[in-house]
Amino acid sequence: MPKVNQDKKEQPTKNDREEVELESYNFAGEQSELIPDLRQLDQNDKEQLIMAGVDVNEEGRSGTYVQMNSSKVHCDTCHTGVEVLDIKDALDKYDNLPEYYWQAVSPDKDKYTRAVADNLHGGYFIRTEKGAKIEEPVQSCLFIKKSGLGQNVHNIIVVEEDSELHIITGCTVSQDVEAALHLGVSEIYVKRGGKLTFTMIHNWGEQIEVRPRTVAHVEEDGIFMNNYIMLKAVKSIQLYPTIYLNGDRSIARSNSIIVTPPGSYVNSGSRVVLNGEDSRAEIIARTITTGGTLLNPGHIIGNAVPAKGHLECKGLILEDGTIHAIPELEGNVAGVELSHEAAVGKVDQEEIEYLMARGMDEEEATSTIVRGFLNVDIMGLPPELKASIDKTIEEAGEEMF
Amino acid sequence: MLEVKDLHVNIGDKKVLKGVDLQLDHDETFILFGPNGSGKTSLLMTIMGFGGYEVVQGSIYLNGEDVTHMPIYERARRGIGMSFQRPPTINGLKTRNMVELCAGENEVDVDALAEEVNLQDFLDRDVNSGFSGGELKRSELLQLLAQKPELVLFDEPESGVDLENMALIGKMVRRLLEQDLQPQPDKSMKEQKNQRKTSGLIITHTGHILDYINADRGMVMYNGVLCCAARPRDILEHVREYGYEECVKCLK
Fold it and tell me: Hey, CA dihedral for B138, B144, B145, B150, is it positive or negative?
């Protein structure tokens, strides 16, 4: 990799809930038996996986990686052109992956990355072959089944030159897990002409703390589509993936759809650094609070010309709660074009009345508008996953009103 | 079917309607003329029931039922439909789904209807998102064709529409008002005419819509009151020649 930027900047602490007491979790490692067929999981766990976008039948998937607690339980590839390995197996096989392992994220970024560096539990390594166009998504699932567990995950994704890949990664817990912590380092490399769609679906629980640390590097003509969907309760999440568009004509799109229920604390944003000529970035966040607290930072940094970036954060406060949108644009060179659009408020009365004039009562009108607001069409998801997310939104919608 | 009695409406502290009386029979189309800001749109919005239009005096009856303080959707379900002059965009809601929602329990062939208003390529787009003036009008008509209202409130069918679109829009408004009768083997046209029920209350500035529909009566709204009842074409010609100034004289 010609340009490697290490991401060391700490996020500002906004609230006591940003800090996780690592000592209160058990990192000793909880080994689980291999599960050759995901249909063997019990019904509740299966449902949790499905809600996180995982197809337990593995139909229409090019590969699957599942980690339960602290170890791999399932890993296979059914498509030539893409390799799916447990990270530990990949480190053994590829001589510690010197080009990729801890090359985008610094182990000293914060105490969470340090914890993952000191005690690796698992994670996936997914790499395409040059030129391979993998049509069906690879799915992964990071699953916590044991209360009090601290799960340390390190993922590496390498999209080789001119190849295309879609990864769906679902993170979830068993319904009876009382408290747990997920630490996830993800390093993503999209090489020249490569295209990656990365869809992350979080389906946690009220007592789960989550600290992902993600950095992506994109080379010339590379495209990185980053989708994040979070519709359920969580104790606290803090994530801020950073995408470096290092190559000329590279493109990033970061789409988030986040609902924050009462009691949840979410600090979720994205940052894109435009380093390549003709690089382009778009960050779009649609957020809703039904009583929880949501921070939504977005940051586009323009270091090259020509380069374009647009940031859009829209928030609806449906029940008393907080949405704090923080759009930041930083241009460092003449000729860069950055823009943003931010709005935090309520469902537009004019839109409600428009639908009411077509015969819908106020509640139907409001939920129709909210479902539209949360629509995931731009994410380019496979139809059955989109249907499952639409269903989740529908159900979340019923809880909202 | 519609009876407006001594209607006084305020928006905030501002009196926008100051005693409006209006009666509309089944199968009757009524044209509202009047300068900008005279209260025409306020009358339509009040009949539909929008928030912000406070009825301080008077009442509105639909088919003998007092709807003055009914919520919008109850009026819609009782047969009032409105074409908006500047409808809002509904992000994430496909036009196709909107048309289905409008249809409610009516059986409709959304694709066939869309083809008639030349919007077949818009069904999978978000409602009104990036639509031109003519497209907005056709989208409103498409929704109303599915909704099949008994009373059509139409705020300026011509605004923002080019000539080519005007013919299509005129034809569809005519259809919505059930004025597009065709000879049928089993019914005489007179019988068909006797069966139709749809009434229209239409605001126009330019009068272009009158080239496409039969309008029975018209009045001029001026400063919150109605005046100068006459045949719509006569009002139009009069206003073209002398402006609305003449109407003020009638009111004095």
Answer: negative
Number of domains comprising chain A: 3
How far apart (Å, rounded) are the C-alpha atoms in residues A399 and A393?
A: 10
Judgement on whether residues A111 and A28 belong to the same structural domain of the protein: yes
Tokens read off for A377: 């069409």
User: Residue A141 carries which side chain, given as an amino acid letter?
Assistant: C
Structure tokens that stand for B127 in this block: 């409602």
Whether A220 is covered by a domain: the verdict is no
A181 and A155 in one domain? Answer: yes
- Record: contact A354-B87, CB cut-off 8 A: yes
Q: Is the same domain home to A82 and A186?
A: yes
B2-89+147-251 has CATH 3.40.50.1980 classification: no
Burial class (CB in 10 A: 0-12, 13-18, 19+), B240: exposed
The CA distance from B23 to the nearest CA of chain A, in Å, is 22
Using pLDDT thresholds of 50, 70 and 90, give the confidence band for residue A10. Answer: very low
Closest chain A C-alpha to B242 CA, distance in angstroms? 37
Which chain A residues have a beta carbon less than 8 Å from that of B143? Answer: 358
Round to whole Å and give the CA distance between A109 and A8: 5
The answer to the question of residue A378 being in a domain is: yes
Return phi, psi of residue A187, to 5°: -120, 125
**pLDDT score recorded for residue B113:** 93
**Cβ neighbours around A218 below 10 Å, total:** 30
Of B50, B76, B90, the CB nearest to A359: B76
Task: Kindly state whether residues A153 and A63 are assigned to the same domain.
Answer: yes
Picking from A145, A179, A197, the residue at the C-terminal end of a domain is: A197
Give the tens place of pLDDT for each residue, A155-171: 999 999 999 999 999 99
Asked if residue B43 lies in contact with residue B202, where contact means CB atoms within 8 angstroms, the answer is no
For the stretch A185-196, pLDDT in tens is 999 999 999 999
Quick check: A258 and A230 in contact, CB under 8 A?
Answer: yes
Q: What are the residues whose beta carbons fall under 8 Å from the beta carbon of B176, sequence distance 6 or more?
A: B141, B144, B145, B152, B198, B200
- What part of A 356-375 touches B (C-beta under 8 Å)? 356-362, 365, 368-369, 371-375
Q: Which domain holds residue A305?
A: 240-346
Chain B interface, best mutation among A358, A363, A375, by max B CB count within 10 A = A358
Residue A125 vs residues A99, A128, A209: alpha-carbon distances, Å: 13, 10, 24
> Which pair of tokens denotes residue A295?
């921070």
In three-state secondary structure terms, A54 is coil
Inter-residue contact A62 to A134 (CB < 8 Å) = yes
Of A215, A229, A230, nearest to A185 by C-alpha is: A215
C-alpha to C-alpha distance for A290 and A319, rounded to whole angstroms: 5
pTM of the model: 0.86
Would you say A319 and A291 are in contact if contact means Cβ atoms under 8 Å apart? yes
CB A45 within 8 A of CB A143: yes
> Is there a single domain that holds both residue A306 and residue A371?
no
Which are the contacts of A343, defined by CB distance < 8 A and separation ≥ 6? A313, A314, A315, A325
- Is the CB of A341 inside 8 Å of chain B's CB atoms? no
